[in-house]
Amino acid sequence: MRLQMPVHLGAAYASPSQRARVVSEGWGEENLYCPSCTSHRLSRSRANTPAIDFVCPECDSLYQLKSQAHTLSARISDAAYKKMRDAIIHGRTPSLLALHYDSVRWLVQDLILIPRFVFSMSCIERRNPLRPTAERHGHVLCNILLGNIPPDARIFIVTAGQVASPTAVRQQYARLRPLEKLGHEARGWTLDVLNVVRAIGREEFSLAEVYAFADTLRRLHPQNRHVEDKIRQQLQRLRDLGFLEFVGRGNYRLV
After folding, report:
1. Helix/strand/coil (H, E, C) string of the chain?
2. Domains identified in the chain and CATH numbers
3. What is the pLDDT of residues 128-159, one digit of tens each?
C-alpha cells in the first residue's frame, strides 16, 4: 500500500473539498483491498451511487470512503439521519473507511475500517436541522460516533503512517464477522457492553464493575427495563464470541 496520494488528479478542481474527494478516491482505487475476502483491489462504484464509493469485484462488499485533513476525532459527519437509521435497522450500511491525510504532503496518515455489521443506533447522533438560510433548510444530518464503537470493532489499516498487513486486517475482520448474524438491536447491546468493559480499563474485571455502568446503558436503551439481566446476557454472548473468558465468581477476563 502506497501512502502517497495522487494529488495531480485534483489539479483541475478549484474547490478544496472536490479536490480532496477526487484525490482520495483515486488513491483508494489504486491501493484499497477487500478485508472481507482475498481480493487485492476494490472497484469504484457507479457515478452518483449514494453512500457507496467502492465495491469488491469478487464478494460484492460495499464501502464508503470519508476523508479529512484533520485528525480523526470522536465524531465523523455523515449524511441524512433517517437514511442512516433505516440502513442500520435493515442491515444496508456499507463498511466505512475513515481516512486522515496530510494536506501539505498529501500522505495518508490514518485509515480506519468500521465493518458494516458493527453499526448500531448507539453509534449515530442526530444533528440539529439545518438553518432556514441553508440551501437544504430543515434537513437533518447525523454524526457517526467513533467513541461509541469499541476499539475491538475499529480495524486500523494505517496508523500514524504505519501500514498493517492485509493478513492482520482480514483476521480482525473475520473475528468480528459473527456479529453479522445478530439483528441491529442485539448487536447494539453486545457492542455497548463491550465498550463498557473496555472503559473499565483492566484486563480482568467483575460483574459488579459492569453493573456500575447500568445508567449509561439505560440511556442508550431506554426501552429496556431489565438492564442488569441484559448485561449478564451480553457478557455470555461476548464470551461465546471469543472476546471474554469467564474466570469464576463473577469475574471475567478480556481475551
Report:
1. CCCECCHHHHCCCCCHHHHHHHHHHHHHHHHCCCCCCCCCCCEECCCCCCCCCEECCCCCCEEEEEEECCCCCCEEEEEEHHHHHHHHHCCCCCEEEEEEEECCCCEEEEEEEECHHHCCHHHEEECCCCCCCCCCCCCCEEEEEHHHCCHHHCEEEEECCEECCHHHHHHHHHHHHHHHHCCHHHHHHHHHHHHHHHHHCCCEEEHHHHHCCHHHHHHHCCCCCCHHHHHHHHHHHHHHCCCEEEEECCEEEEC
2. 7-176 (3.40.210.30), 184-254 (1.10.10.10)
3. 888 777 766 778 999 999 989 999 999 999 99
